[in-house]
Amino acid sequence: MTELPPLREVIGKYGLSASKALGQNFLFDHQLLARIAKVPGRLEGAEVFEVGPGPGGLTRALLQGGASVTAVERDRRCIPALEELDTYFPGKLRVIEGDALEVDAPALFQGKPHVVANLPYNVGTALLVGWLSAEWAPWWASLTLMFQKEVAERIVAGPGTEHYGRLAVLAQWRSTPKIAMNVHRSAFTPPPKVMSAVVHIVPGASPEGVRLKTLETLTAAAFGQRRKMLRQSLKGVPGALAAMESLGIDSSRRAETVTVAEFVALARILG
């Protein structure tokens, strides 16, 4: 394989700059990108789905790890720079110009891909919620995603902490999330105002007898009024107070103290 030109050189060649409107922040640090690409594990022969590759920094690292990459990019300015990578990794990269929120990702793969992405800040949470709400077992093998650090902390938060809420329950009731690494704002061009973190999520078994819709209704009510006692916040959810009593959950508690397992047990009864 011919040696790849430096990423900054490619960006200069195509006159690219990060778009604020698209929530873009480019990463140039090859070693950092290689570390992110290794988070899902061995990629030799694996399929990877990448969202918002921009000029292709992470894409390069994934291809160098041996993956076949399908990349969805909304910014047409970046498409020529991405397509140039086919010269160095023939047949290993498929580039789709489009909006990841509208692309039917499961239809693009025969097996289960790893999703690996430095997500655009303005759509990251919406994409994650969609992937976590998919049919289970999901179409993806794992998620390795860059978020603002505060969002990452909300995904992995435990009960009794300030970041614990609906997103934590959604991420943890049938999958296991962890923060794989923190990334300093200075690593990006341009540097964002906040720190970032890479979250790795592995799917688990879906608890039996629990409907996602019921769990969503419960957590929306409970965390929608998180400062109120459960007897107040859940009184509008039919059967919730009786279900709490049957499980021995004290109705004077607040949502932030209720464990994921307790929310699952309540949803099971209500479902």
UniProtKB/TrEMBL annotation:
Keywords: Cytoplasm, Methyltransferase, RNA-binding, rRNA processing, S-adenosyl-L-methionine, Transferase. HAMAP family: 16SrRNA_methyltr_A. Its main location: cytoplasm. Transmembrane segments: none annotated. NCBIfam families: ksgA. It comes from the Bacteria. It catalyses: adenosine(1518)/adenosine(1519) in 16S rRNA + 4 S-adenosyl-L-methionine = N(6)-dimethyladenosine(1518)/N(6)-dimethyladenosine(1519) in 16S rRNA + 4 S-adenosyl-L-homocysteine + 4 H(+). This is Ribosomal RNA small subunit methyltransferase A. It is an enzyme of class 2 (transferase). Specifically dimethylates two adjacent adenosines (A1518 and A1519) in the loop of a conserved hairpin near the 3'-end of 16S rRNA in the 30S particle. May play a critical role in biogenesis of 30S subunits. It holds the Pfam family RrnaAD. The gene is rsmA. Belongs to the class I-like SAM-binding methyltransferase superfamily. rRNA adenine N(6)-methyltransferase family. RsmA subfamily. One of its GO terms (molecular function) is RNA binding. Its EC number is 2.1.1.182. Residues 32-205 form the Ribosomal RNA adenine methylase transferase N-terminal domain. One of its GO terms (cellular component) is cytosol. S-adenosyl-L-methionine binds at N25, L27, G52, E73, D99, N118. It is found in: Cytoplasm.
